[in-house]
């Protein structure tokens, strides 16, 4: 029997607000342990939470970007569980009233295949602290810097059909968050983490199979690896006629396998109830409109424009829109040179290549967009050749100088004046009378010889197209005489 893989992801995105979700402590990553704690973070009796408005702004923004309905009447709920990194004994989250619901994002699984993946809900919650087990042999330690850092949890519908698609979807979520600048999406630092739910069902079957949930995956590679392992494990059980146990698993990246962590908890296990310390949050239309007006264009829209208006390939559009800074740079180059294809080539191959080699990115590029645009303009107006432009670019990359300055300083100008080229052609003809005779008798091979001679005597700076044309024209004139 053939089986189909069904996957749904729960993605946790740490928001890049300055302070925590319910108190003023900093969210900065990498501080000494327990530097960013206060009475509320420690769960001290009597401390009360105050909502950080920016968290709601960001949630609305992400909801709009993911085509969700934004809830008007929001509440926070307490989700109870006991763990040392959760001093209050409950996490403040949202339960029955998440801020965003029923959305979708279009995910490109390859440059020309796109499909919407449903977004079931997005809710606001606080992060927990971190238990550290490997610093002391006799004790585990707790760092509460992360406790109370705001998170958005994005829950997808079970619309994903393979481990590779899951990684694509996760990249798309990260890309949107980075475009909106609501999170850096840094997986190594834990700003983006995901739980992956997976089940198999016979092809053609409508009902979903029993799922398992792999907790806390922290890299794109591990998402794919963990889901591949789990697909194979479930498949072998099903083929042997056995049942899948609904459970929560941990992925062990060292062995590349999953192992049981606990049986699946039900929501009733958490004793959810509305948090009495926090008033409901009412999101009025006006608030939504204000956020909408602040939103940047999203990668999907920009990609579409790059293909339909700028005439780029879907592949190139995908490369340019991978990061908002990259496409902003590209558009600034285009603004100067008005040559979409050339701007794309110079940005994606020359510039990205050079940046890569030096371990730089676009924000630290020694060549700015105005100068790269100006370089392309110099080529298009035939002031320099494409070949000269490569060496000018190298100099720009080294010195950050403008192309005009470099061309001036190095006397690199291409000769395009017909009079000037013609006078050089005549000199070369005079210096090579026997070859000229042969050319005029119709020996076409000598055309190339004369092009070579003219280019040589100008040190390669004559416009080759013009040289070609003018040699033909001058030879015809002489032959006709
Ligand atoms: P719970 O409330 O138990 O966490 P949800 O219905 O909210 O369950 O789903 C959690 C995640 O699991 C979602 O991303 C959803 O798409 C996914 N999911 C639900 N059922 C299945 C299934 N049978 N196979 C794979 N993924 C599933
Ligand atoms: Mg869940």
What features would you describe in this structure?
- The chain is of the alpha+beta class and 481 residues long.
- It folds into three domains: 202 residues, no CATH class; 114 residues, no CATH class; 61 residues, Arc Repressor Mutant, subunit A (Orthogonal Bundle).
- It contains 15 helices and 16 strands.
- Strands 2-6-7-10-1-11-12-13-14 form a nine-stranded mixed β-sheet.
- It is elongated and about 100 Å long.
- The N and C termini lie far apart (86 Å).
- Bound molecules: adenosine-5'-diphosphate (ADP) and magnesium ion.
- The site of adenosine-5'-diphosphate has 16 residues, from β1, β10 and β11.
* Helix-residue proportion: 40-55%
- How many domains, as an integer? 3
Total beta strand runs: 16
N/C terminus separation: 86 Å
Characteristics:
481 residues, nine-stranded mixed beta sheet, three-stranded antiparallel beta sheet, 16 strands, 20% strand, binds adenosine-5'-diphosphate, binds magnesium ion
Topology of this structure?
Elements: E1 3-14, H1 53-65, E2 69-70, E3 73-74, E4 77-80, E5 90-93, E6 100-110, E7 113-126, E8 130-132, E9 141-143, E10 150-156, H2 163-180, E11 192-202, E12 212-217, H3 220-239, E13 247-252, E14 257-263, E15 273-274, E16 281-282, H4 285-294, H5 299-308, H6 314-320, H7 324-337, H8 340-357, H9 369-380, H10 386-399, H11 403-409, H12 418-431, H13 433-440, H14 445-457, H15 464-480
Bound molecules: adenosine-5'-diphosphate and magnesium ion.
Entry summary:
With 481 residues, this protein is of the alpha+beta class. It is 41% helix and 20% strand.
